[in-house]
Amino acid sequence: MYPTALTQLARANPFSAPLFTLQKVEQPQQNLHGGQRTRRLAAAATVDEDVSCEFGSSKYYALCGFGGILSCGITHTAVVPLDLVKCRLQVNPDKYKSIGNGFSVTVREDGVRGLAKGWAPTFIGYSMQGLCKFGFYEVFKIFYSDLLGEENTYLWRTSLYLAASASAEFFADIALAPMEAAKVRIQTQPGYANTLRECAPKMFAEEGLWAFYKGVVPLWMRQIPYTMMKFACFERTVEMLYKYVVPKPRSECSKPEQLVVTFVAGYIAGVFCAIVSHPADSVVSVLNKEKGSTAFQVLKRLGPKGVWKGLVARIIMIGTLTALQWFIYDSVKVYFRLPRPPPPEMPESLKKKLGLTD
């Protein structure tokens, strides 16, 4: 039987939902040992490819986590200057009028080196976030897929992407929160601290451990919708690019050609990610700057217009960032010869139920 709760959730899915219903439910196939045979969304990953490990193995998860560390740590650190100006636009719009003005004011007051403020907590925090985000996404995607079974996995794959990415980001933000709090203090409070070594002890002395985790709920508000959009939009965009844009099947594309598709799909996903998560990002930036404020108080004070300050900078930053993250992550998979599943195809058993094949 198909689970009712999941069916209702998937029908409300904003991306897509099947327009047909199955009339007959067959018993799952049994293997030679009598156990139920399941097939994951990516079980047909790379049967004929030369891979270094089994799909879903401990080594696979570990290397996916390593790819997440590189993709998030490197990219977020590379855009620290833009992130710094974006944060200052959000917390002090009277002083920093625009992106260009923000850069010029920062260089005039702090010199060129001032644009690198907060690089250490950014690198550490987002490396840990990337480890959990990409590593746990692979774990939850396979876990939920096994729960659903082959046919439901295909039918409700977008809901699967959304659920797996939300689950992964919940843990990723707990890992990110302490360093994000320190980064914002360094970037938005002149004179407070110039390095992580100065900032962390000072924050702990003033507010205790709460100083590092008071922004975790706004982080969830910002990052969980962002990550759900990032993964679901990317997965479906890749699927559509190979179906409607790329003139040949993925199996006939070279590795560099596949990575180009990855980059394009990542950038498209990144633009939507920035828009979805920006209001919560504005709240996080202000909340980590001020003592004693709550997320609701900050949101009320910023108002409908205030939460969209710095959106252009964030679209540029997140679009580029997301594209590079997916490119680096996929490149790590290529380098270590990890299984890289093709876009999902309708299972043969489902085709027979729908009368699409003999």
UniProtKB/TrEMBL annotation:
Record-annotated membrane-spanning stretches: 259-280, 311-329
Primary location class? mitochondrion
GO terms for cellular component: mitochondrial inner membrane
Q: Which UniProt keywords apply?
A: Membrane, Mitochondrion, Mitochondrion inner membrane, Repeat, Transit peptide, Transmembrane, Transmembrane helix, Transport
Q: Name one Pfam family in it.
A: Mito_carr
Q: Which InterPro entries match?
A: MCP_dom_sf, MCP_transmembrane, SLC25A3/Pic2/Mir1-like
Task: Name the membrane topology term.
Answer: Multi-pass membrane protein
The UniProt GO MF terms for this protein read: phosphate transmembrane transporter activity
- Report whether Transmembrane shows up as a keyword of the record: yes
Instruction: Respond yes or no to whether keyword Acyltransferase is given for this record.
Output: no
The source's domain of life comes to Eukaryota
Reaction catalysed by this enzyme: phosphate(in) + H(+)(in) = phosphate(out) + H(+)(out)
Functional note: Inorganic ion transporter that transports phosphate or copper ions across the mitochondrial inner membrane into the matrix compartment. Mediates proton-coupled symport of phosphate ions necessary for mitochondrial oxidative phosphorylation of ADP to ATP. Transports copper ions probably in the form of anionic copper(I) complexes to maintain mitochondrial matrix copper pool and to supply copper for cytochrome C oxidase complex assembly. May also play a role in regulation of the mitochondrial permeability transition pore (mPTP).
Query: What is the similarity comment for this entry?
Result: Belongs to the mitochondrial carrier (TC 2.A.29) family.
- By what name is this protein known? Solute carrier family 25 member 3
